[in-house]
Design brief:
Keywords: Membrane, Transmembrane, Transmembrane helix. By secondary structure, the chain is mainly alpha-helical. The protein has a domain of 85 residues. Helices cover 69% and strands 0% of the residues. α3 crosses α4.
């Protein structure tokens, strides 16, 4: 491990003359930019208000986005099959899928909601009568089972 040792004698003089040691320069004082705490606090508060306002605006649409995503994910393979049958025309496959989903999802939902709205009075009468109705008392044979 002689190669790890520092050269001595003539080798050292030759090495020192080839690479002179630079004279140390005076240390410069690093200047840091001043931090304006008020600007930082206002910027963070503005970002928090913008994010909060955006989430408040988007909040009512989240259930619709979830339903839409669910429908797209579940019908995607069917749409690709329709696209293959229509010679790769995506716009026609999307149109067919849209019409199919309107027939399968929207029309039955509309029919169910309109039927419930039409029978709202009957439903309310039934719910109000539930408070008057009571459970029948148990049969005589059930008391012995306890």
């Amino acid at each position: 491990m002689s190669w790890l040792r520092r050269p001595t004698g003539a080798a050292q003089a030759m090495d020192d003359s080839a690479h002179p040691i630079p004279s140390p320069e005076p240390q410069r004082e690093t200047v840091r930019p001043t931090v304006d705490l008020a600007t930082i606090v206002l910027a963070v508060a503005t970002l928090v208000l913008l994010i909060g306002g955006s989430l408040d605006i988007v909040h009512p649409f989240v259930p619709a986005l979830i339903w839409g995503s669910t429908i797209v994910v579940t019908t995607w393979s069917l749409m690709l099959g329709v696209q293959r049958r229509l010679a790769g025309r995506r716009w026609l496959a999307v149109t067919v899928m849209l019409l199919l989903e309107i027939v399968v999802i929207c029309i039955p939902t509309y029919a169910a909601v309109s039927m419930l709205a039409g029978h709202a009075a009957d439903i309310m009468n039934f719910v109000e009568r539930l408070a008057d109705d009571a459970l029948p008392s148990p049969r005589a044979g059930c008391a012995a089972c306890r």
